[in-house]
Automatic annotation (TrEMBL):
Record keywords: ATP-binding, DNA-binding, Nucleotide-binding, Transcription, Transcription regulation
Annotated source species: Dyella acidisoli
Domain of life: Bacteria
CDD domains according to UniProt: AAA
Name of the molecule in the record: Sigma-54-dependent Fis family transcriptional regulator
Domain Sigma-54 factor interaction, chain residue ranges per copy: 132-360
Record bears the keyword NAD: no
SMART domains, per the entry: AAA
Pfam families: AAA_lid_14, FleQ, HTH_8, Sigma54_activat
InterPro entries with a match to the protein in the record: AAA+_ATPase, AAA_lid_NorR, FleQ, Homeodomain-like_sf, HTH_Fis, P-loop_NTPase, Sigma_54_int, Sigma_54_int_dom_ATP-bd_1
Length: 486
C-alpha cells in the first residue's frame, strides 16, 4: 500500500466519504484523520489536506504542523462552510496562498482543477513532464518564439485568453533555457490578497507582522538562479507594482521586516489574460512596469484559432489520464465535427476538462456526437430534425409533421467538405433518437419502441448494441444486460 498523500479532516461522515472516493478516483491515496493514526512525514507523502467540519482551531493547527510539510508545498482544500475557513484565508495565515475553497455539493471538475495545484505532485508523483502539443500554424509560431527567447534572460510577457496554455509556455521557456536545472517558481498574483503578496514575493522576518511566527523565504529567493513566473500580473495592485519594478530595475530587494538588501538572479516570465495596454491607458497598470515586462511579448492563440490541434490535444489528455491510472476516451468522427463547432471560451483547459469528464462517463469507449453534453453538440441538423419528428409525433401531429421534417432533412443535411463516415453518422442519429424516445417515455422500453415504430425486441437489441440499458427504467427487463429478449 503506497503512503497516503491526502489527509481528510472532516467530522461529517458523508462528506468525508465523498471526498475520499473522489480522491481515490483521481489516483490519490487519501487517509481520513483519526487520532490513533500517525500523520508524520516518515510514514506519509502529504501533498494536500482537506479541512471540513472541525471546530477546534488548536487541533487544526497542530494537525497541519504534524504533517511536517513546508507551507508552500501543501495544498489546503477548505470546505466553504468550514469553521476554519475565515481564519485560514485571512491575511497573516501562512497557508492563505495555498488554499482552494470547495463548495458542496462537490463538483468533480472543481476538485480535479484544485488538485492540479498540489505543488510537488507534478514533479514527484507524476514525473512525466506535460507536453506542449500542437502542429498547427498558430502553435508552430508559439514554439518558434519559445525556442528563440529561451536561451536569453529577457523578460517574457505571455498574453492570451484564459486556459490557452500561458503557464505551460512559461514552463516550456524555463525548460529550454540554461536555467532548466534551477527552480521554476510560480505565483498567482491575482489569487493572493494584496497585503500578503509582498511577503510571498520577498519573504519576511520573524515578527514582521502579526502572524509572522517564523522567518520565511519569498518566491524570489526560492527561484534564485531559476525562473519566477508571475501569473495574473494584470491583477497586481499599484503599490505592489512599484515594489516589483524596483526589483526588476535593480535586481535587489529586502524581506518584509528586514533592512538587509538581497541580490537576486531570477528570470521573470509574467502572464495575464487582461489587456495591459488598456489597463495602462486607464492608469490601472504602470507603463514603466509594462515596458519592463514586455521585452518579449508572446501571444497565445485561442483554441478557436488552432482547432486542427484538437486530435493531438485529446491524445495528450488521454495519456495524462492514463498516467494517473484513469481510463481514456475516444471520439467518433461526428463528435469531433461537433466539437469543432463549439466556441471554446475556456480554451484548451475546457477541452482537457471535457476529456476527463467524458472518460469518466464513457470509460475506454467511443463518444458519439449525441453523447456529448448538450452545449458541445453543436448544430447537428440531422439529430435536431430527428428530435422534432419524435416531438411532433408525441404532440399528435404525426400526420403532417414528418413530411415537413423530411423536407427539413433534405434542406439542412449538407455533406461536409471532407465527406462523412455515413455508418457512424447514422448510428449517431439512431442513438440520439432512441435516447430522446426513452427520455420522453420515462425509460419505458415498450412505449419508446412504439414511438420509434419498431418491435420492442428490436429496440432491446439496439439498447444492448449501444450500451444504453442504463437509460431504461431499472425495473424494465431491458435494463439488465444479457436479459433474454421477451
Ligand atoms: N498546447 C498545449 N498542449 C498540451 N496541454 C495544453 C496546451 N495548452 C494548454 N494545455 C493544458 O491546458 C490547461 C490550461 O493551461 P494553462 O494553465 O497553461 O493555461 P493558462 O493560459 O495559464 O490559463 P489561465 O489564464 O486560466 O491561468 C493545462 O492543463 C495545460 O496543461
Ligand atoms: Mg495560468
Amino acid at each position: 500500500m503506497p503512503n497516503s498523500n491526502v489527509l481528510i479532516i472532516e467530522s461529517n461522515g458523508t462528506r468525508a466519504d465523498i471526498i475520499t472516493s473522489a480522491m481515490q478516483f483521481m489516483g490519490f491515496f487519501p487517509q481520513r484523520w483519526d487520532a490513533s493514526l500517525p500523520t508524520d512525514s516518515m510514514t506519509h507523502d502529504w501533498r494536500a489536506v482537506y479541512i471540513g467540519g472541525i471546530e477546534d482551531e488548536t487541533l487544526c493547527d497542530q494537525l497541519l504542523a504534524s504533517l511536517e510539510v513546508p507551507v508552500e508545498q501543501l495544498l489546503v482544500l477548505v470546505g466553504s462552510d468550514s469553521p476554519q475557513l475565515e481564519r485560514l484565508t485571512k491575511g497573516g495565515s501562512s497557508h492563505a496562498a495555498q488554499i482552494e475553497v470547495l463548495d458542496f455539493p462537490l463538483r468533480y471538475e472543481r476538485l480535479a482543477e484544485a488538485m492540479r495545484r498540489a505543488p510537488t505532485l507534478r514533479t514527484q508523483s507524476n514525473p512525466a513532464p506535460l507536453r506542449l502539443v500542437g502542429n498547427s500554424t498558430a502553435m508552430g509560431r508559439v514554439n518558434a518564439l519559445i525556442r528563440q527567447v529561451s536561451p536569453f534572460d529577457s523578460s517574457v510577457l505571455v498574453l492570451g485568453e484564459s486556459g490557452t496554455g500561458k503557464e505551460m509556455v512559461a514552463r516550456a521557456i524555463h525548460d529550454c533555457s540554461p536555467r532548466r536545472d534551477k527552480p521554476f517558481v510560480a505565483i498567482n498574483c491575482g489569487a493572493i490578497p494584496a497585503e500578503l503578496l509582498e511577503s510571498e514575493l520577498f519573504g519576511h522576518e520573524k515578527g514582521a507582522f502579526t502572524g509572522a511566527i517564523s522567518t520565511r523565504k519569498g518566491r524570489f529567493e526560492m527561484a534564485e538562479g531559476g525562473t519566477l513566473f508571475l501569473d495574473e500580473i494584470g491583477d497586481m495592485s499599484l503599490p505592489m507594482q512599484v515594489k516589483l519594478l524596483r526589483v526588476l530595475q535593480e535586481r535587489m530587494y529586502e524581506r518584509v521586516g528586514s533592512n538587509r538588501t538581497q541580490r537576486c538572479d531570477v528570470r521573470i516570465i509574467a502572464a495575464t489574460h487582461r489587456n495591459l495596454e488598456v489597463a495602462t491607458a486607464e492608469g490601472r497598470f504602470r507603463e514603466d512596469l509594462y515596458y519592463r515586462l514586455s521585452v518579449f511579448p508572446l501571444e497565445m492563440p485561442s483554441l478557436r484559432e488552432h482547432l486542427d490541434d484538437m486530435p493531438e490535444l485529446i491524445t495528450e489528455f488521454n495519456q495524462r489520464l492514463q498516467r494517473r491510472g484513469l481510463n481514456s476516451v475516444r471520439f467518433s468522427g461526428s463528435a469531433m465535427q461537433s466539437l469543432r463547432q463549439h466556441n471554446w471560451p475556456g480554451n484548451v483547459r475546457e477541452l482537457s476538462n471535457l476529456v476527463e469528464r467524458l472518460a469518466i462517463l464513457y470509460p475506454n469507449s467511443e463518444v458519439r456526437a449525441s453523447d456529448l453534453p448538450e452545449k458541445y453538440r453543436g448544430t447537428q441538423p440531422i439529430e435536431e430534425t430527428g428530435g422534432s419528428v419524435v416531438r411532433a409525433m408525441l404532440d399528435g401531429q404525426s400526420k403532417t409533421a414528418p413530411a415537413h421534417n423530411r423536407h427539413l432533412m433534405d434542406a439542412e443535411v449538407l455533406l461536409p467538405e471532407g465527406g462523412v463516415d455515413l455508418k457512424d453518422h447514422l448510428a449517431d442519429i439512431e442513438v440520439g433518437l432512441i435516447r430522446q424516445a426513452l427520455d420522453i417515455t420515462d425509460g419505458v422500453v415498450a412505449h419508446a419502441a412504439k414511438l420509434l415504430h419498431m418491435q420492442r425486441t428490436t429496440l432491446v437489441e439496439k439498447l444492448r448494441k449501444y450500451g444504453l440499458q442504463s437509460a431504461c427504467r431499472s425495473n424494465d427487463p431491458a435494463a439488465e444486460s444479457g436479459t433474454a429478449v421477451a
